[in-house]
Amino acid sequence: MTSDMELQLKGYGMTTAQILYRMPDHPSLLQTYIWQHYDLAPDFPEMRQFLKFWQEKLDGPLHSVRYVHRKLISASEWRALKGEFILH
Fold this sequence. Notes:
The protein is an alpha+beta fold. The protein has helices at about 5-10, 45-55; strands at about 15-20, 30-40, 60-70. Strand 1 (about 15-20) and strand 2 form a beta hairpin.
């Protein structure tokens, strides 16, 4: 399994999606689901895969999806340093 830091260094950023879907038993009601995962903008393969799974396997039909994406580490923020801190 890839660590969060490795994903961020490969260009992944945190994507959060607010998914509104209709309740299977009460289609006039909307329910909210929050999904969060590391993903690559602008294609968002992880989110697309999750939404495809939702449409194929889950009963609640999708109403809408709103999302935000943020790279947590950019190339300008990452640099290799040499040194060490010694405590006691």
